[in-house]
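Q: Start with the shorter request: fold the first protein.
A: Done. Sequence, then structure:
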Amino acid sequence: MIIKLISSATSFGVPLPFCSGTNNLNFSPAAGPEKKKHKQACSFKFNFGISSLSEKRKNKKEIVRASPPTEIISQLLVPIINTVSTATEEKWELDNGKPGIVEPSSGRLLQGGLVFQQNFTIRSFEIGSDFRLSIETLMNYLQETSLNHLKSAGILADGFGSTLAMTAKDLIWVVCWSHVEVDHYPSWGDVVQVDAWMYRSGRNGVRRDWLIQDLKTGKTLIRATSLFAMMNKKTRKFAKASEEVIGEMKPFLMHCDPLINKDTRKLLQVETDTADYIRTGLNPGWTDMDVNQHVNHIKLVNYVLEGVPPSIVESHELCAMTLEYRKECSLDSVLQSLSKLNRNQLIYDQEIEFEHSLSLECRLEIVRGRSRWRKKLCH
């Protein structure tokens, strides 16, 4: 279901219940005796200066003559009609693709389809305890714009990223690694603009970059990049990118340098005996699964961060994160999240760094990562 938002419908941007063109509120005056009754009701309602019934009867004709209900209702409806007219006009502009208005629900293609742009309003269920965008929501924005880019380009086949040629070969996209840098977290009610584009990386990989800005100020908030590869849905093994598959995507692959460079330092495995913080007994459930029949990589981010002590989460905020996805995670797996403080990367006591390892209880590693945290500013 696609919901189109109509801007400027009211002072809060909420569409009125009769924006479709039909008036659901029937203000038409009734005919015959009902019309007279309607006039009496309206004259009594709007005459706040009369206190006694005798005075009302005495002055009823004068009241009705001074304040005809149709004129009163017309005066009340003028601003509403003007608002509906403005909303309808802006919806017409959206439907006809005129520049200057971006429909938040679907986004738009720029530069001949090389760049996809979509706006998001930070909603109440997308924030953390500090009223700011949560990490899970941020990762969801990245995934959503990736899929909507392919959908808007017209090369999406199964609705979750696979093109026609990929679907014919039972291929799906999987995330190999992700890197995110946060300069500033948007807050509840802010509107952010997400620009996304993709380009080749090696022979079989496709890399995607994102730039998130404050729509009102244009300030850069977040930068992110990820590497995607193709996996056979049946064998669960990595597959080569055929010319047929790349041919479908080639018109939408940009030739550019990376927006940000991945941290070149090797990610280290954290062992149980060397970890500073350990969180055990993490159980992904069916709500963590995605359509590719494994635990969604965004849910794994939450489990990785479960290994960060609460005292750090309360006093610091995540400003950078690099994750390397090594194995699939299935339903009802029992995970443990290990974190080790990197004491060599303390920066003036303002930023701290952790090495992370998310693994099964049998020590098979699922995700390996690194995160950097800075002290929170007083709000």
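Q: Next, the second protein, separately.
A: Sequence, then structure:
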Amino acid sequence: MESEKKASMVSDMGAWAMNVISSVGIIMANKQLMSSSGYAFSFATTLTGFHFAVTALVGLVSNATGLSASKYVPFWELLWFSIVANMSITGMNFSLMLNSVGFYQISKLSMIPVVCVMEWILHNKHYSKQVKVAVIVVVIGVGVCTVTDVKVNAKGFICACVAVFSTSLQQITIGSFQKKYSIGSFELLSKTAPIQALSLLVFGPFVDYYLNGKLLTNYKMSSGAIFFILLSCTLAVFCNVSQYLCIGRFSAVSFQVLGHMKTVCVLTLGWLLFDSELTFKNILGMILAVVGMIIYSWAVEVDKQSTKTLPHAKNSLTEEEIRLLKEGVENTPVKDVELGVSKG
């Protein structure tokens, strides 16, 4: 039992480490690919389509070689999920374009309380006081790290709301699908990736043209840009797989809370690799965020332990209880249901 628990813990840590490393890696690769000082490939939605196309190809090869098994999930549910996921991607891109960086960061922070409320509404899930305190500390810490100027406009606000709602719903749905259909994370991703890839590759160039006024066909591709596109796609496979793995193992709220560790890593690496400014405010926010994550981990563990120690209802009757019930049935006069009189 103890060895199984340790193996599960190692597996959880592995999934989380893969998600953090691949997510931070893809941000660094995309920064080089999309920045004006890099290769100026400013087609974020289309690039995401490439990501899902490569992920779908990996899933197809895995199923064909027998490395993974394909389980049945109704097509309409996969289609609905893909629409929600694509709304999340497009909404985030539009939110970043139309809003200030400060408001964009606030909208991302708001996903934690939104996920909590949605899980409460959809799954009747409740959170302890300790977990709520930890979430608040994490939100404040990451907010201090990242939020600068905050400017709001009507279009940007609507896009941010769509992005937050669809991303939260997507993360909750991943977990519920895995439980509902007893499907592994990679198998679920293999089924949704082709739909997302097709739709993003068809509509992505038009979305990108609206965002930046540039046509993909006019972009001059270089060997360096191709290398970073392939690197980004490779990291995206690990990032997508690990995201599904993490949400299957943890809750959507845990994924959001621990996900802010990536923000801390990105800020630190940006300072180390790209000469980004790291102020006292950033450092203070990072410390707060890390403290909040430690409190959150402790609070979740306390909840698990308290759940285990709760008294459980009996699942079976003892022989003595069965004998007494039999005697009760045999000695009780049978009544006529309609007349309510004893027949014994």
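Q: Describe the second briefly.
A: The two ends are 54 Å apart (CA to CA). Residues 2-34 form the longest helix (33 residues).
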